[in-house]
Each structure stands twice: as structure tokens, then as C-alpha cells.
Amino acid sequence: MLHYLEMEDKVTSPEKAEEAKLKARYPHLGQKPGGSDFLRKRLQKGQKYFDSGDYNMAKAKMKNKQLPTAAPDKTEVTGDHIPTPQDLPQRKPSLVASKLAG
Amino acid sequence: MELKKTRADIISTVEFNHTGELLATGDKGGRVVIFQREQESKNQVHRRGEYNVYSTFQSHEPEFDYLKSLEIEEKINKIRWLPQQNAAYFLLSTNDKTVKLWKVSERDKRPEGYNLKDEEGRLRDPATITTLRVPVLRPMDLMVEATPRRVFANAHTYHINSISVNSDYETYMSADDLRINLWNFEITNQSFNIVDIKPANMEELTEVITAAEFHPHHCNTFVYSSSKGTIRLCDMRASALCDRHTKFFEEPEDPSNRSFFSEIISSISDVKFSHSGRYIMTRDYLTVKVWDLNMENRPIETYQVHDYLRSKLCSLYENDCIFDKFECVWNGSDSVIMTGSYNNFFRMFDRNTKRDVTLEASRENSKPRAILKPRKVCVGGKRRKDEISVDSLDFSKKILHTAWHPSENIIAVAATNNLYIFQDKVN
Question: ipTM more than 0.85?
Fold first, then answer.
């Protein structure tokens, strides 16, 4: 509450006070807040990039190694760690009935 | 995978049918659950009909568009019922890309006594058949089946946010971020584009379509709202492509009040015609506004949903809550409007008495048949005993979707993965 009162001395409305707070945290925040960048991000929702070349190369490499069974390999974030079918989260449809259906 | 199961249960849409007999919910897992109101029995005249599960089915599956590297969620964005024309019920359900028409029908008889099949369905050897009989229909336990009758696909490049059935009952519209298409229920391989706001150069994009709805009585009229807080009313008789609006609703803004957040919080998340067709209601982040179709320069009523959030906009921007899309609904007589908020709170505004109330949908606070207690959020320093301070609001408990029975005081409130149905007390 004390912090809010301090801000009120400097700016006129709570909204402007919040804006000042945001600009203080992110000085490079874009000039057009509701403009193209923000809208284009909204339009691109769901975009997931999958490179079949990388995937097949990794699959070929994997054949010569043992398939990772435990967690240790997952902490590795290098160019070698291309997602394999085992790593990808399952995009299965919901086979379980909705809990609302009792 | 326990986390995924919970997320799939999040309710993403709630809608009563035109009589209020049925209530449909759609969820993030692509499933639809339909509830039916119990018939009031003669023995228990005072016991109001309760809603029980009637049917449930998987409407949409997750998909991957390999050509565009786009993951298509199975989440049901909207459900809209068609008016009932025969014994079966029809509804439209949509995810981001595909609209489907579902038929829900009852079966309470089945044929028995086939000649070529036995009772288990196995084929009989024709050589063993010595007599001929006529199959008869015998009663069976009620079975409710849902079948997909039409699939309206491949018409939207962007994500569908709204569908609306036209009053002609022959057509409906589907709206995505930049375009609106008109469909005929019978034709799935063609649709007419009626609004296209995509700029030639995407760098020039300044606004997107956020919601759209047909007028309840005039089949040539519809409205769509934008991320800039404006509403356009279009008349399909004027031209085939309704890029030029017939009416443009916008409230003038005081330039001295403008901040980084102004445009974001003015983005309209829902637009609904009143049942009378004379008004439209819009919901933006902090308010609900009622507009008279005959007055474009400002709303006739503005209601503050949770103005205390104005001093929290910075953190609400950081945690993305500022982009939450709340819906709003009218009651049957257009006298009361309702919308959701955070902390499982929802608000109702009586347009005539100008009184408003905040209620909470939560297990701890509602026992069956208990009366809901009004809640209050306190903003100042001194918090009274029953009040909740702004800082202790739970922003993960958001009520985005609510529905109001078409003629009675029965409301459905979706609180994350729970559905609450509240009714007026019978005296």
C-alpha cells in the first residue's frame, strides 16, 4: 500500500503508475504495444517447427547408440538432442471420458 | 501425464439450448457433455428440475498441419445450438479450424427377430432357416447417440473465435482473427467470405476480429468486435463483401488517459445481442458496456466489473492475465447481465435497479440448496471481516464462461474444470 501512495505523488492515475512500473522493468518495450508485434504473435499461436531432415539424421545416429532410458540424457541441451518420438509429449486424443459426464 | 488429464477437463464453453432443456459444455480435451433438465414430476411440484448428464462425445481431435507446422488444438471454442425442428437435437461445435454439426438423438426401440442374423448379430447359415418371420420393434433402454452430420473444414487460415446461427436457420457464420465466412448447413465444401480485414501487407496489421454474432431476428444483419474496442454492424444486403460497415460503434477516449495498457484493456472479448435485438453488450478487460444500436458514438451503460485491477495491470501483463477473454450474457428479459471475474467470482448487474452483486462459484462456499452469499473485494487499507483483499485474489481461478437459461433464472457457471448450476429459490 505504501508503494502505491509513493507512485501516486509522481503520476496521476493508477493505470499510468502501472505503466511507469512496466517501463522501469522493461526499458526496451516496444513503442506500439497493441500493434503489429503483439497481434502477429496472436495469429501465430500453435506454431511448432518440425524439421524432418534433422529428425531423420538424429534417428540414424540413435541407432548406433543405446536409446536413453533414464532422465540423465534429458538434461543435455545440445545440438545432438533432437526430439525423438519417446521425448515428445503425447498428442493423443482424450480417450478418458470427461469428469463432468460422471 | 496426470497434468494433461487435468488440463483436458478445463471447460471452454457453456451454452443452453433455445428452450433451456439442454445445457452443453465443451472442454479443452475436445469433448462435449450435454445435460438435460429433469422433467418436474407431479409428486414433487416444488422440486425444481435438476440437470443430469444426457450425452457425451468426443467432438474434435488434436491435429497437426504438417504443411504449416501448426499444431491444431482440440479445444472446443464455442458451441451453438440450432432451434429444434424435430425429435433430434442439433448443435454446432468448433475448435480453432473446423466446425462440426452434431445430431443428438434418442433410440428407445430396437428391431428383433431377424431372419439372417441371430440375436448376437452372428450370421445364420441359410440352410438352417426353415421359417420366415417379420422382425418386430421392441422397447430397449434409452440410448442417446451423437453423430457428426457435417464437417465444415479448411475455410479458416486463422483461429476461429466465434460461430453464430442465423435466424433463417439455413445459414451460419464462423469468424476467425481476420475473416468471417457464411455457410449453408447443407453445403460443406463451400463457404462465402463476408468480411476480410487482412491487410495486403501484414506489417500494417493494426486490429483483429475478436467476436461476431448474427442479429436475433434480422437475418441480413450481424456485428463483429475488434481488438481495438470497436464494433461494426454489417448488412449483407448492401454488398457481398461486408468490408464497409453500416454502423461503427466506438467510445471516444480521453487522450490524456492513454497508457501502454489502453489498447489491450479495450480489446473486446465478447459481443452479444440482447434478446430484443435492440442492444448489444460488449465485454472488455475491466468493463461490460451496453450499446443502443441507434447510437454509435458511445455506450448507453457501462458497468465496472473489477476496476480495482487497474492498479495491478503491470503484473497482470507479466502473467498474461491481461489477455484473458471473458464472456458476458443477458438474462431472458434483458434486464440483468452477467460476466465472470477472478477468484471464481462472477458479477451480475441489474440494468433497471442499477444494483450489482458479486458471487462466488466454489465448492467450499456452496452446498446444494444453500443460498449464495454476496462477496466483496476491498481495495483500501481497512479490510472488513468477510472481504477479500485484491492481493489475495487467485488469478488462476478465472470464470470466463457463463450461460443464462433463456426464460428462467437458472445460470451455469464454468470455474476451470467444474460446472456450477444455480437456480432461483422457490418460495
Answer: no
